[in-house]
Fold this protein.
Amino acid sequence: MVARTGEYSGDVTNPEIEIKIDKENQTLSITDNGIGMTADEIKKYINQVAFSSAEEFIEKYKGSDEDAIIGHFGLGFYSSFMVAKKVEIDTLSYQEGAEAVHWSCDGSPEFELSDSPRTEIGTTITLTLQDEEQEYLETTRIKQLIKTYCDFMPVAIKFEEEVVNKHKAIWRESTQNVTQEDYLELYRHLYPFQEEPLLWVHLNTDYPFIVNGILYFPKLKPDVDVTQGNIKLFCNQVFVTDHCEEIIPKFLMPLRGVIDSTDIPLNVSRSSLLSNRTVRRIADYIAKKVGDRLKEIYRDEKDKYISCWQDVGTFVKFGALNDDKFKSK
């Protein structure tokens, strides 16, 4: 964003995050090659706990691909003290004449700000882990966390000289750019050792809310629990939860796949979600798209529709009982 607006004229490399563990010193470090921070920005963005630098950044560069922003920094940064007894930042800003800065805090209200030997633009955050949190020094644990939460992130995450998150979020692509094999490959990755899906629905809208996703009709087994959700919720390609019960109509619970939206509030209670107007509209949109897709397949691929009816019929009948608009379709 900064380069595109002309504020930075140096070399722009592909964004990248690198994670390293040091068992001897009990540290976990996360390094990026982003724009870095000045001493004043650290005082503003790090020391003001309730201040969200991400929100200010979005506002400043509105219309410049703000989708790239994930989450709200603010309080989230301090969650690191749940596992760390000391957190350090070494950063060098892209701004001309900027000096590298070192910030250190042990979780108390006090912090230290000093010069840093860093010579490359970007930021490194180093966590000195608590004695009871040594699991975060294990290679398998770190890889598992990256694969679970960041597998589809558009920024490469390197660990032990390997890019760990290798999958493309095809649900953010136009349907014209996605092949049948792409859809099947995503399904196999999300649900290994399962039978191939019968049908799928590609969701893609940016008005009046933003929703992207792919929902699959699985082959139903006799013992399937139709009240148990299997759809994964993402926010800007970052995994949030396996449970979307409050977001999708209950008759679509047996579907599998992905819903990715920045318009679903993630920090509110379940009851608040159920009464949220935007969430209800998103649920209606999803039901409509599923109904439209079934009608389309019935119209254009009737033999396929009939061959899948034993499984698809369960959704249709359950939907007709629970949703009048879906029933009319």
Notes: Residues 277-300 form the longest helix (24 residues). DSSP finds ten helices and 13 strands in the chain.
